Amino acid sequence: MSATDRPTRRSFLLSSVAVGALGLSLGQRAAAAEDNAIRPFRVNVPEEQLADLRRRIAAARWPDRETVDDRSQGIQLAKLQEIVGYWGTEYDWRKGEAKLNALPQFMIEIDGLEIHFIHVRSRHPNALPLIMTHGWPGSVFELLKTIGPLTDPVSHGGSPMDAFDLVLPSMPGYGFSGKPKGRGWNPDRIARAWAELMQRLGYKRYVAQGGDWGAPISSAMARQAPAGLLGIHINLPATVPPDVAASLAVGGPAPAELSEKERAAFSSLDIFYKKYRAYAAMMGTRPQVIGYALTDSPVGLAAWMYDYNNGEPERLLTKDEMLDDVTLYWVTNSATSSARLYWETSGQSVLLSAAQKTAEISLPVAITVFPEEVYRAPETWARRAYRNLIYFNEVDKGGHFAAWEEPELFSVELRAAFRSLR
Amino acid sequence: MGTTQADEIRPFAVHVPEEALVDLRRRIAATRWPERENVNDFSQGVQLAKLQPLVRYWGTDYDWRKAEAKFNALPQFITEIDGLDIQFIHVRSKHANAMPLIMTHGWPGSPLELLKVIGPLTDPTAHGGRAEDAFHLVLPTYPGYGFSGKPQDTTWGPDRVARAWDKLMQRLDYTSYVSQGGDWGAIISEVMAVQAPAGLMGIHINMPGTVPASVLRLIRNRDPAPESFSDVEKAAFARLDYFYRKGFGYAEMMNTRPQTLGYSLADSPVGMLAFFYDKFTEWTHSGGEPERVLTRDEILDDVTLYWLTNTGTSSSRSYWDAAQGGGGPFNAFDIPKVPVAVTIFPGEIYRAPRSWGEQCFHKLTYWNEVDKGGHFAAWEQPELFSAELRAAFRPLRQSL
């Protein structure tokens, strides 16, 4: 799988402060320091695994084509065969690997689990530390294009005052992070781990950001309000009010008193609930069952990931970008472990304000609404859900994978959203 | 043009090329596995330690040719109905006044789930019954399943399948017949009863659609059962609530994205087996150990049939096609005229309360709860199931 060859010299140990806080004896402290080491990490997937992947792709057995002329039964055969054909021949994982290895990557053990993260410090001294969390079916790949604009704003049309130090962890069960051996790694626990990660990196004041799973994790951090967290920015906010959620649950009509924007949001959510949410129901209830298929069949995995939200990702992302992400899931064998995050939170929609307990958040919250997101959160709902909403903006392009699709715009949003917290 | 007439009934036998079996074993041997579930129960789905031995057996000692022999020991036919090839088993009783009965399998089943009742139903005197209880049996394969054709469009919802079954019975010269089923078979029988073609005398179902819309609304909204409910209704409510919260993902996926799921089911034998075995585990009356009521071979015969016919996707589409018309597997079917008989097996996904059945089946001629058997009642408890069918349809014979 992954090997840590050619380590850089940036290995460093946890400050003794945190270890001391655990009240360990001297001997224990030495052992703990070893465990707490932040170790450099590089990706190097054995060639044999890539050959095996290509072999499986070539041997794919296909179903007959869909019986419709649109995407309503899922990703269409002709489309998937085109993508998979490229995947099994010209696609080069080594380029994806090189993208990761061009960055400072590390491993750290937190709460008993290995956490992989990218850590890019800005050269600007007053940079604001920012921990950004990817989602499903994404990975740290979806965030890479924002590293330049965020850590080096001067080269990307920004000012030095907008610089961030970036921490991009892989969620438990995803990519090169460890796979939880027991239950309980839900967004609340991941949020606590992220706070610990920031603390271990010596960041005393920082912000958090995310879409998809990154949003509930960032929100959980804001709810927990660990020392040092100044605020969060999210691009998949949990704003859906309880009365609207109740209508959606029974497939009923929109509540009568909705504004035009609220009605549009309701309509998007209604379609999502009725037509595009089955993947989450499956992973939320039977991660192991779907996991067997996605682990054994690269074509099945590609279809499952590509189909997310019935999008047309190739409009916004290159084939290589998508396949880097799918291949990352494949080579780390994390289709099942990533699906388990849904099981951990089964029934707690990341879109509903009540399920995400947004009323308990008092830290500053910033939101950007991207137009092709699963739903466009109306400002009215956002203000009801987040009482300390310091920033709300709707932009004119970008979707669920905003950082990946529109990295410049996304970065501009983060600069504006966090400016008041610096 | 062709020399065959559209309504010709052609004999059929199963002969899977050896190459397909070799390929299946090769894929099984090359399985890439996930790590084990991180719980100590079934709550994340079929456990790794449970699936692996079954897969090992499938890839080594399991013998498809025995299943093929089971099929080929029976009179099998194919006929084109409404533009689609329908494969069916047709066993006539030696008893002159046998009642014609069309029985329909479900998902993830196949005609294989019905084979053990052929003896008791067509030849009752050899199975503790009386000659007056004999049936002529017609066991069609659902469109998109097994050896039936795969629909090339989206029009093969339950309404069309039900009409095709009546055409099939007419083509076999059965002017007066009954229909039976669980799972899809229940829905098709119910739709037939709503359509009420002239020859249909009545239906027996073992997964009745009785759930009132008001109950479904409560469940979808995560509301509790009303206090006014009887204990039986509360128990049904609890089972439905579990099903929709924890056990419905498979159907949601097939209802909305059959093609997306289908790539996995077409390419990975283990993925297909896991997807199906999950439901054998939950839906048999076996305490979560399906091998207590079905043999490994029986389970694998069924999954291998789906694999060899590459029908993981086309069978999933039957959900999508049906979903276009709305509704759900247990939604109450209002059946005004045709006699309805029901047997409740304890391991069924939910145990329909008679009170709900009486609301929607206006001519409820038979209702019985038995003490064993689950969703695959004919497969799990063929003798008991056959006894139920005899009892359920007896009054309709007297009215003939």
Draw up the topology in text.
The complex is a heterodimer of chains A (422) and B (400).
Chain A: H1 16-21, H2 26-35, E1 39-40, H3 47-58, H4 77-87, H5 93-101, E2 105-110, E3 113-120, E4 128-133, H6 147-151, E5 164-169, H7 187-200, E6 206-210, H8 214-224, E7 229-234, H9 242-249, H10 260-275, H11 278-285, H12 287-296, H13 298-306, H14 319-331, H15 335-344, E8 365-369, H16 379-385, E9 389-394, H17 402-405, H18 407-418
Parallel strand pairs in A: 4-5, 4-6, 6-7, 7-8, 8-9
Antiparallel strand pairs in A: 1-2, 2-3, 3-5
Helix pairs in contact in A: 5-14, 7-8, 11-12, 11-15, 12-13, 12-15, 13-14
Chain B: E1 9-11, H1 18-29, H2 48-59, H3 64-72, E2 76-81, E3 84-91, E4 99-104, H4 118-122, E5 135-140, H5 158-171, E6 177-181, H6 184-195, E7 200-205, H7 213-220, H8 231-246, H9 249-256, H10 258-267, H11 269-283, H12 296-308, H13 312-323, E8 340-344, H14 354-360, E9 364-369, H15 377-380, H16 382-398
Parallel strand pairs in B: 4-5, 4-6, 6-7, 7-8, 8-9
Antiparallel strand pairs in B: 1-2, 2-3, 3-5
Structure write-up:
The complex is a heterodimer of chains A (422) and B (400). Chain A is α/β, with parallel strands linked by helices and 422 residues long. Helix content of chain A is 41%, strand content 12%. Chain A is built from 18 helices and 9 strands. Chain A has a 9-stranded mixed β-sheet with strand order 1-2-3-5-4-6-7-8-9, with helices on both faces. In chain A, helix 8 links the parallel strand 6 and strand 7. In chain A, helix 5 (93-101) packs across helix 14 (319-331), helix 11 crosses helix 15 (335-344) and helix 12 (287-296) runs antiparallel to helix 15 (335-344). Chain A is globular, with a radius of gyration of 21 Å. Chain B is of the alpha/beta class and 400 residues long. Chain B contains 16 helices and 9 strands. In chain B, strand 6, helix 6 and strand 7 form a beta-alpha-beta unit. In chain B, helix 10 runs antiparallel to helix 13. The longest helix of chain B is centred in the last third of the chain and has 17 residues, at 382-398. Chain B is globular. The model of chain B has no long low-confidence stretch (mean pLDDT 96). At the A-B interface, helix 11, helix 12, helix 13 and helix 15 of A face helix 9, helix 10, helix 11 and helix 13 of B.
